[in-house]
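ingest -> fold -> write
write: protein_1
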Amino acid sequence: MAQAADALYLSHSAASHRLAVLEREVGVPVAERVGRRLQLTETGHVLASSVKRLKHELDSIDALIEQAQHTVAGRVRIGLFQTAALRMFPQLLDDLGTRYPEIRLESSQMLAASALAALATGDLDVAIMPSYLRESVGLAPGLHVEDLYTDSLYLMLPVDHELADRDDPIEIAELSSEKWIAGETINLLISAYCREAGFEPDVIHRSSDYTLMTTLVSNGYGISILPVNAKLAAFLPPVALKQLNLASAHYTVLAVLRESSLSRPAVAAVMDAMRHLHA
């Protein structure tokens, strides 16, 4: 069960619930416990292989329909994390509206693990995720991964912080006594940077909402590290953005999609538009 949950980017309890729902709908067991392991029954194996074929066939059918049309058209569903949505999504909509007006682009803001789960179940066509999560979440076979752009990370301080007027890059070691505000995913980077500097960060607030995180920093409740440049900061509460003296203070933003959907003209057009934005 743990391996299945990991493959679907679900918690153990969520995976158990989905299995129970599936068995109620099918009417027969699809998994059985053998010793301490949970294994698929014969029916479960048949269903699993059928679902894999079905997802591939659905992508192929969508591709055939779209290729038969005289214009590039169709629905494409994309999942983005917050700063990627702020940075590129309005421009992506403008570009698609100009070049491919028949494409219906639907979006959902979500964390990378949720986006990959939706990609695996066919509820998304494209997932946008930061590269620093690639190892922790893992990527299933049959996925196409493409670099889109590089984002820099900045130290975010209250405007009246004693380091807010510093011009030179700030060392992480100087922040050992600070209280930290961490996102659900950016916490991985904050923890790694602080441990390399010889201390554990005192994380007092956690949120996946960068607006809330920035508001807490602005009000003096802690500091953070976020991929928020001056352009994005204009939409957020006032903070001081400072450079860090870290060679690794950046990451790559990735687009992940099923290989079987690459032949869909609408998906290919969305990928082309994203490349065009960051060329």
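write: protein_2
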Amino acid sequence: MSKKKRPKQDQTNLLAAVRAVNRGKNLSATARLYGIPKTTLYDHSKGRLRGCTTGPGRKLSLTMEEGQPLINYIKYMADRGRPLTNRMLKKFATAILRRKEHVTQIDKNKGPSDKWCQRFRKRHPEIKLRKPDKASNPRMEVTREDIEEYYDLLETTIDRLGLRDKPECIFNCDETGISGKEVIRGKVLVKSSQHPYQEIMNAGGGHLSINMAISAAGNCLPLMLIFAKHMPRNLDGLPGDWMLELSKKGYMNGDLFLTWFKDLFIPHCGRQRPVILIMDNLASHLSPDIIDEAKRNRIELLCLPQTQLIYSNH
């Protein structure tokens, strides 16, 4: 019975491993990190196989060069108060994969697996997956240390960008929802013959989300209304610069937030740069496209405190 041939190594992966060894990295550790047989790596690092080319073996879904933008996103968000969770890492990796025209091992609709994330971390030891001191709901419990750390980050960012005396360049965005089924919680005084009623906004039979941004100087930007499934019939009286959108259940998602950011926030936040945009840590608010758009327009993204399993770059 003939021996089973060992698959040839991916050229990019092998070259990266050889460079690491030549820079003084441990041979055995590097071989394990890149998934390359130790003898093969040793021969290439010593030039014994110079002139030999490697054929197609198991290709990385993201090469070392293509994976660098993902590392940059991890570091960018970690420095701005929103370290990525394992779930967010998969989301960002999927977005990068969808930009690639060639076929990859990962389903671009489903995204990478947990094992892929583990291998990615092994190839990039400069990032680690860490668990905060507590794992409670970030909206329910935030410690005094969390608040102090956030304000230190905010103050440092304001000083770094020179916005101490420019409140018109510091914005906060948030969203709220109206279900149309709000319960009357209080009582009012009326005449004995008068019937009290409460007027609520009709969201067209479903949930309505309202996304808004306001500056530290008090300037309120046009609103974004997100209706469920279909638009209400009567929208008379709404300002013309408000943005009206639809989603399946009337909630914000990544595509809608990117639309709001590009088509409403950027045109209405003024011409001065840089600008700070403070937002909560919802996953729909973060994507590679939003970060790239923010960098192009000199908008600094800053996230409110959150407590989840996170990636750290140190």
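write: annotation protein_2
The chain is about 35% helix and 15% strand.
The longest strand covers residues 170-178.
pipeline exit 0
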